[in-house]
Write a structure and sequence with these properties.
heterodimer; A: about 110 residues; rod-shaped; B: about 170 residues; mainly alpha; Arc Repressor Mutant, subunit A
Chain lengths: ~110, ~170
């Protein structure tokens, strides 16, 4: 039973092999295509290798900069923005509120008290 | 082996090699031609060297199987990494049977191919190597890169599954 089934499978694969063989590309054409591929491979490989090296270099540089603390620092304290309407916030006599009155020695003279 | 001898040996094996490449690529003709060309290139420029540890036929089929695996891996990488195509180059084919090949097949063969496609990759490989390429199970194991015991298991289970699938297809 098993042998008969194996025989059927073998026949099926034999038919498949015959059909595939009919559509097999010529050996010469396959080798020629392979050789043509070989001629283009170094140029493509150099291009791909160049792209890969560039990507890796960018990644390594950014990691290195991050590690060593070499990064672009923006000091916000040095940047002061003035709105055009700031003058509206200025009150008459504003400077009196921001300064400490200076009393002269005369004003604090104990004898005058 | 001299380059002339190598070319002559490859020419003799060409039809079997193409059939095996077709099976490795899910009967996608374009992908199979691509894999075959890449395999021949490896053999002709010496990247894959025959050391006489197995028969030349087993060695060549092994090189084709490895190349097909590499192509599949590259395709998978391309799907997952959008920038991978910059490094790996353009994709060769989609890995499905092409309509022209499918149309040219007889009904029985179409049924067999359809049933084979539903088996696991290992079972399909082992059955193909034994029935199509006339290799022994030990040789099939060497080509597929698995142990003889594993190959035998895949062979027995694959045969049983294939018979069931073919019976279903006939109903």
């Amino acid at each position: 039973m098993i042998e008969r089934d194996d025989h059927q499978l073998r026949e099926g694969f034999e038919a498949l092999r015959r059909e595939d063989a009919a559509g097999t590309p010529p050996f010469g054409a396959t080798v020629a295509a392979a050789r043509a591929r070989q001629a283009t491979v170094p140029r493509h490989r150099a291009l791909r290798l160049g792209s890969a090296v560039a990507v890796v270099a960018v990644v390594v540089l950014s990691i290195w900069r991050e590690r060593d603390g070499v990064r672009l620092q923006i000091d916000l304290a040095t940047v002061r923005w003035h709105a055009p309407t700031d003058f509206l916030l200025k009150l008459p006599g504003d400077e009196l509120l921001r300064s400490v009155p200076q009393l002269g020695s005369r004003g604090l003279d104990r004898r005058t008290l | 082996m001299s380059p002339a001898d190598l070319t002559a040996e490859l020419e003799q094996l060409h039809a079997a090699a193409f059939g095996w490449a077709l099976s490795c690529c899910g009967w996608d003709r374009t992908a199979a031609e691509d894999v075959l060309q890449a395999s021949y290139l490896k053999l002709l420029d010496g990247r894959a060297r025959f050391d006489g540890r197995s028969s030349f036929r087993t060695f060549v089929l092994g090189v084709i199987a490895r190349t097909a695996r590499e192509v599949r891996r590259r395709s998978a990488l391309r799907r997952w990494l959008p920038l991978a195509s910059l490094v790996l180059g353009p994709e060769a084919a989609d890995g499905r049977p092409d309509p022209a090949t499918a149309l040219a097949r007889a009904d029985d063969t179409t049924r067999l191919v359809r049933a084979l496609e539903r088996l696991s990759a290992r079972q399909r490989q082992v059955l193909h190597l034994v029935f199509y390429e006339d290799l022994t199970i030990a040789e099939a194991a060497a080509v597929a890169g698995i142990s003889v015991g594993t190959a035998r298991t895949h062979y027995e289970r694959g045969k049983a599954a294939l018979r069931k699938l073919l019976e279903k297809e006939q109903e």
